[in-house]
Amino acid sequence: MEASLDAEKQAEILRERYGKRAPARGLGDSAVVPRRLLLPSVEDPSIWAVRCKEGKEREVVFSIMRRVEERLGTKNEVPIISAFERGGPNSVMKGYIYVEAQRQNDIMIALDGVLNVYPRTKMILVEIKDMPDLLRVTKTPNLEPGAWVRLRKPAKHAGDLAQVIDVTENGLEARVRFIPRLDYGVRDEPLLSADGKRKRPGMPGPRPPQRLFSEAEARKRHPRNIHGNPQTNTWSYMGEDFENGFQVKDIKIQQLDVKDVNPTLEEVTKFASGAEDGTENLDLKALAASLKDGVTSVAYLPGDIIEVYEGEQRGVIGKATNVQGDIVTLQVTEGELKGQSIEVPNKGLRKKFRPGDHVKVIGASKYRDEVGMVVKIHNDQVTLLTDQTNNEITVFSKDLREAADIGGQGSLGQYSLLDLVQLDPTTVGCIVKVDRESMVVLDQNGDTRQVVPSQITNRLPKRRTAVAADRTGLEIRLDDVVREYGGQQRQGKIIHIHRSFVFLHSHESNENAGVFVTRASNVNTIAAKGGRINNQSSGPDLTSMNPALKRNPTGQNVQAPRTFGPDRSIGKTVTVRRGGYKGLLGIVKDATDSHCRVELHTKAKIITVPKADLAFKDQITGKVIDVNSGRGGFGSRGRGGFGGGSGEWSGGNRTPMATGGGERTPAWGSKTSSARTPAWSRDSGVSGSRTPAWGDGSRTVNPYDGSRTSYGGATSYGGATSYGGGSRTPAWSSSAKTPAHDGFGHGSKTPAYGGSDAWGSKTPAYGVSAPTPGASGNDSWGYTPGASGGSHPYDAPTPGAGLGAPTPAALSAPTPGAYSAPTPAAVSAPTPGAWQGGWGADTAPTPAVGAPTPGASGGYYGAPTPAAYGAPETPAASGPRYADED
Amino acid sequence: MSENYVAPNQQRYLRACMVCSIVMTLARFRDEGCPNCEEFLHLQGSPDQIESCTSQVFEGLISLANPGRSWVAKWQRLDGYVKGVYATKVSGQLPDDVRSAIEEEYRIQYIPRDGSVTEAD
């Protein structure tokens, strides 16, 4: 009895003690089954990956939980077995929910109507062997006291190095210390004013520099907010704790960066020096540990010379042939093992350099990007002499790499080499040398001085349109080559123009990076970029030689825009030559000096178009760009002349044209091509549109083209530029031609004329015309269809005249348009013919041209890609004159 | 079974039990304790215990609808636990005294939920 009672009591006791443990619960099993026996099998339910909204994975999981509970016990019980997510801001599995169920359909039913999850899009079945991977978990390394971390959260200190002092037991928070960024109340004012509601977003912006805490400072500003204990050197100021000058704070681990901290030597020494009482705060072991972690990230590139300095193969030097993960395959270059290939782990390697190697610093050291020559090697520390400043710096060999380039930083802050900067209100200078913190500037007077960025007011951006006048009065722009008149006769390319000073760059001199400065009035043009003919001296001459000009005294009138009565162009049928409405026909409804309102033929719309962009279509033929409003009659006149002339250039129509030309000439004569569509005069750039070659010279034919600007002002032989600046068809030297053609004074033959704006002399231009397809660049090409090949009607020869001899050089191929140096030869030829086409009514390939209407020119010589012409003939045909002349 | 659902605005207060990895709000731990581990953790009504035996740092939520049937539960060793939301990884260390109490007194094999024990698959 007693025994049983005892037993009962025993049982009672036992039950009490152990009964609580529901044996089935959780870890009731004394033996925990090893995981390998828990691998999924075919009987287990499958897992599907379902797309969901990124960032909402957790929400979806909870929603599923809720739904399961809601429908528990009802007939709509949710059939899925479980669901999980592995999302996170950096997870590869974000955007997915993994649902465990027997059938895919179960999932569809279960997730139907749940927000942020998309069961209808394709669900991916996870293979059985991949299932355990979905749930794999890796331990985040624990933080040790003394370890280095970087702060992320207190915005002021984001990125600052901190040292862990202690970690809470649950591993969530760590007590760290770091160098404070206090401003001791200097900046308190703004905070009070507007920042009431805002969470002080501006704070991190201008952060106070890192400085150890000093209670003297603190007491000065806020004597009330500070209290502490002088003996232990711990203070509490403004709610923050400070110890030994460092700020100590409990920060959550999530708000710290634990990986890839890479504490630089300077930061760490600051910590060491922070200890005022001399105790060595620097835990060398911890430092070494964190540094070592950094070291392994050195990547060796095949081709590096490497030395093994650890392990049995210490001292072996070789060249890396292959890097695979952590193992580097080395081809031994010296010693006994020479010639053999050995594999060494990353750890025991060190890059080997020899004195005299040219290297670049690529590592994380503060000397990053310095390039220099190795002078001394000591273990893994290498001393090198920098290229830029000839300073000696010592870095670890792991931070170096063989450098092919000379390099070094070309920029300092926002300023880079060869920038034009403003030093003070009256002085500008060009940066000629960039050091680490300072730079050398050559000012406008030719003196060099060393400045720091703060001494520079601002940088002056390059104004492409800057123009100055050289000694002879010719325009000079950026990228032109000029030579000093006096002094050292240095030659250089213009890199900056400022007021009357030009900064030039020459490859010959080494001083000041080849930069020198002089006054614009002190230089002579050697070559203008794009072949701009700066040789305006011949311009005026041509004008006087221009019979057309002489012929027509009324030409002068053209200069002044006459507007007698309503604008002559009103009511005229025009075609738009440029812009979005290009190619459309219309009638001028209204006009001002510069613009016309054109009623389009096709659309019920009236557009405003600059006169320069219009081509007046005469019933007869030809289009002439009517620039001067006064020219009422010229259209007809010229046209008439050309019109017929185009066809019959050979005819004597020219004369009329001549006059027309005469008229034009005035326009043409103007070097500045003011009349011409300014664009025309543009250098090559503009010419581009012109059909480079076409524009010049040849066009002249179209006297109308006042706008030829290309001709006239044609400085732009634009196309011509290709000639290398005015070197239009060397052969052409227009001069030769002109005489022949001149009637029209095409003088603008441009090539020779180079800028002969005076189209008048077109003929010379003709030469040009032909050639320079590029030359043509002179806009005129486009226009003067009539210009038939530049030789403009006057010559009849136009045919080859311009065309024919497609600028022998120019035309060759280079789409004239392509001023790109239509290699004079390039003009292969067709152009002449081409022009013909272009010339609008030129029907008859104006002589010489014969057939080859370049076709291209058909239109407005649209870039008569010489190629277009294919028909080489003309050149021969037309070539005539010019060809010969060439 | 009370509501396991947690509204998004409350998700800030979630904590995970270090022993069984169940995820609940702080309030629920305080009111009900841990449904699986209350016997040996005594979290109910004890903020200190909660603070030391549950963690705010966890990841990989699992919504367990059918612990008995689920392979996921078996793999994660949750197959004896109640329905609810669990975490695949709970960071943090159980205090030593609690840990020894569990192992000796209650003879429960504690398996850390923070991924530190890598078992051969």
TrEMBL record, chain A:
Gene3D superfamilies: 2.30.30.30, NusG, N-terminal domain (3.30.70.940). GO terms for molecular function: mRNA binding; translation elongation factor activity. GO terms for biological process: mRNA processing; regulation of DNA-templated transcription elongation; regulation of transcription by RNA polymerase II; transcription elongation by RNA polymerase II. Residues 636-650 have a biased composition (Gly residues). This is Transcription elongation factor SPT5. The keyword Cell cycle does not apply. SMART domains: CTD, KOW, NGN. Residues 674-847 form the Spt5 C-terminal domain. Component of the SPT4-SPT5 complex. Interacts with RNA polymerase II. Residues 44-138 form the NusG-like N-terminal domain. It comes from the Eukaryota. Belongs to the SPT5 family. Residues 190-211, 550-570, 636-701, 722-749, 770-886 are annotated as: Disordered. It holds the Pfam family KOW4_SPT5. Keywords: Elongation factor, mRNA processing, Nucleus, Protein biosynthesis, Transcription. It is found in: Nucleus. Residues 142-170, 299-326, 352-380, 475-500, 567-594 form the KOW domain. Residues 797-834, 841-855, 862-877 have a biased composition (Low complexity). GO terms for cellular component: chromatin; DSIF complex. The SPT4-SPT5 complex mediates both activation and inhibition of transcription elongation, and plays a role in pre-mRNA processing. This complex seems to be important for the stability of the RNA polymerase II elongation machinery on the chromatin template but not for the inherent ability of this machinery to translocate down the gene. It comes from Cercophora newfieldiana. InterPro entries: KOW, KOW_Spt5_1, KOW_Spt5_2, KOW_Spt5_3, KOW_Spt5_4, KOW_Spt5_5, KOWx_Spt5, NGN-domain.
UniProtKB/TrEMBL annotation, chain B:
Keywords: Centromere, Nucleus, Transcription. The keyword Transcription applies. CDD domains: Spt4 (cd07973). InterPro entries: RPABC4/Spt4 (IPR029040), Spt4 (IPR009287), Spt4/RpoE2_Znf (IPR022800), Spt4_sf (IPR038510). GO terms for molecular function: RNA polymerase II complex binding; zinc ion binding. It is found in: Chromosome, Centromere; Nucleus. GO terms for cellular component: chromosome, centromeric region; DSIF complex. It comes from the Eukaryota. Residues 14-91 form the Spt4/RpoE2 zinc finger domain. The keyword Transcription applies. Its main location: nucleus. Pfam families: Spt4. One of its GO terms (biological process) is transcription elongation-coupled chromatin remodeling. Belongs to the SPT4 family. The SPT4-SPT5 complex mediates both activation and inhibition of transcription elongation, and plays a role in pre-mRNA processing. This complex seems to be important for the stability of the RNA polymerase II elongation machinery on the chromatin template but not for the inherent ability of this machinery to translocate down the gene. This is Transcription elongation factor SPT4. It comes from Cercophora newfieldiana.
